[in-house]
Amino acid sequence: MNRILFVCLGNICRSPLAHGVAEQLVNKKNLALFIDSAGTSNWHKGEEPCPHSIKIADQYNIDISQQQSRPITKEDIALFEYVVAMDKQNKTDLEAFGFSNVHLIGDFGNFQGEDVPDPYFFDGFEGFEHVYNMVAVCVEDFIEKVENGSL
Ligand code: 4NP
Question: Is 8 a catalytic residue?
Answer without folding.
Answer: yes
